[in-house]
């Protein structure tokens, strides 16, 4: 699966990083940066939590 970020939608809330710090980091302004775009199967659960945590629907998980 791929974890995709639409940076035009990211408002820097930082909520996505809490459930998935191994997949997402925040830049110095608090905007998300995807660290691992190809998510291994064992990381799917936290990736889905990160997607659900974003209030702006800036993250997507695609197969
Ligand atoms: S929760 Fe959404 S808007 Fe906030 S930093 Fe993460 S991707 Fe960006």
From TrEMBL:
Keywords tagged on the record: 3Fe-4S, Electron transport, Iron, Iron-sulfur, Metal-binding, Transport
Co-factor(s): [3Fe-4S] cluster
InterPro entries: Fe-S_cluster_ET (IPR051269)
Pfam family, one: Fer4_15
Any one Gene Ontology molecular-function term assigned to this protein's record: 3 iron, 4 sulfur cluster binding
Alphabetical list of PANTHER family matching this protein: FERREDOXIN
Protein name: Ferredoxin
Species in which this protein is naturally found: Streptomyces monashensis
Lineage of source species: Bacteria, Bacillati, Actinomycetota, Actinomycetes, Kitasatosporales
């Amino acid at each position: 699966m791929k974890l995709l970020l639409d940076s035009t939608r990211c408002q820097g809330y930082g909520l996505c990083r809490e459930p998935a710090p191994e997949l997402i980091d925040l830049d110095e302004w608090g905007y998300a940066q995807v660290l691992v775009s190809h998510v291994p199967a064992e990381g799917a659960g936290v990736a889905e939590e990160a997607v659900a945590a974003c209030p702006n629907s800036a993250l997507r998980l695609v197969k």
